[in-house]
Every structure is written in structure tokens, then in C-alpha cells.
Write a structure and sequence with these properties.
Helix 3 runs antiparallel to helix 4, helix 5 runs antiparallel to helix 6 and helix 5 packs antiparallel against helix 9. The protein has 2 domains: 70 residues, no CATH class; 102 residues, no CATH class. Helix content is 67%, strand content 0%. The two termini are 35 Å apart. By secondary structure, the chain is mostly helical. It is elongated, with a radius of gyration of 19 Å.
């Protein structure tokens, strides 16, 4: 079963993607899929029905998706989260996706994304997670002695994922706990 995004997840991704436009090219499709799920679960909002019907297009238009999403948000009196909260949503989802990787190569590609892109939303724990993952990336995948000499080549896959899990555990405990949210975005 594919990962199901909540509305809060999607709104956070939307805000974060506005700040960093290279993120989430598939965000429109994710929002429309969420709307479809809501309709099948019994939500009878006409605006949401229109948003869900945008799935009939091969590629929903961003302007239309945002228009009907904003109308639905107005109906429900929902506001977009601030950028700092959106950053925590993004890094939480990133950490979950990294934890769900099934191969070292897949995890390497996820971590490489952080090495290649500059993300600086002014949230201390966000910066700490990114810095930790970048350091771990260079520790595990740097081939300074030549091709095939990285640490990731030398260790077992289970050991590799245990190392990543241990590095992320202190952060994920805080980021995933809703009671910490207000404190973390200050």
C-alpha cells in the first residue's frame, strides 16, 4: 500500500515547495489523490469533488489544484502552516522515506539529494538532521581511496540501515511528537 499523506502533510509540502520550487514536482497529483481518498471516505464537499475530478486530466494544472484547494481550505477554515512548520513536515517525511528504503543504493540516492541541494529554512532541528545526514553520507559513500572503497561497500546492509536508524532516532523522536512542534519551530 502506498504512503498516504494527510492534509497537514500536503499543506506543509505545498508551503515548502513554494520556498524551494525544485521540490515535489508531483505535489499536484498527491493533492488530487488525497481529495479522491476524501471523497471515497464520504466527504461530500463540492469543492473537494471538483478537486478530486482533476485526476481525470493526465497532469493536473497547478493553478487549478491550488485554486480548489484554497477554496476547500476557506470552507473548512484551514490556514497554510508557516514555513518553519512546513520545514518540519518536509524533513519528517524525508526521514520516513529514508527509513523505508530497501537497498543501500536507494538510501544513497535519498541522502545524495541533501548533499546536492541547499535547504535552509531557519529551523535548528531541520539543520541538525540535514547536517547529520550529509555527514553520514560522506562517511558512508566517500571513495577517497578509490572506486569501491567506501564504507557502505564494506558493511552489511543490515548494519548500514541500523547506522542510519541510530543517527536519526534522537531527531525522529522529537520531530514526530506533536507536543514538541511549537518548541521546535521557535
Amino acid at each position: 500500500m502506498p504512503f498516504r499523506y494527510t492534509l497537514n502533510d500536503l499543506l506543509g509540502l505545498l508551503v515548502f515547495a513554494r520556498e524551494y520550487p525544485f521540490l515535489h514536482n508531483d505535489l499536484d497529483s498527491l493533492i488530487v489523490a488525497w481529495a479522491e481518498d476524501q471523497i471515497t471516505e464520504g466527504n461530500d464537499s463540492e469543492t473537494l469533488l471538483i478537486l478530486a475530478s482533476l485526476a481525470l486530466d493526465n497532469q493536473p494544472e497547478r493553478a487549478e489544484v491550488e485554486l480548489y484547494l484554497s477554496r476547500y481550505m476557506a470552507e473548512q477554515q484551514i490556514e497554510l502552516p508557516p514555513l518553519k512548520t512546513a520545514a518540519l513536515v518536509w524533513i519528517t517525511l524525508f526521514m520516513r522515506q529514508l527509513a523505508q528504503c530497501v537497498s543501500i543504493h536507494e538510501a544513497e540516492q535519498k541522502m545524495y539529494f541533501l548533499v546536492c541541494h541547499w535547504l535552509e529554512p531557519d529551523v535548528k532541528i531541520f539543520a541538525a538532521v540535514v547536517d547529520t545526514l550529509k555527514s553520514l553520507y560522506w562517511h558512508l559513500f566517500d571513495e577517497w581511496e578509490g572506486p569501491g572503497t567506501s564504507e557502505a561497500v564494506r558493511i552489511e546492509e543490515s548494519e548500514f540501515f541500523a547506522l542510519i536508524h541510530r543517527a536519526m532516532l534522537p531527531y525522529s523522536r522529537k520531530i514526530e511528537n506533536p507536543d514538541w512542534l511549537d518548541l521546535l519551530v521557535r
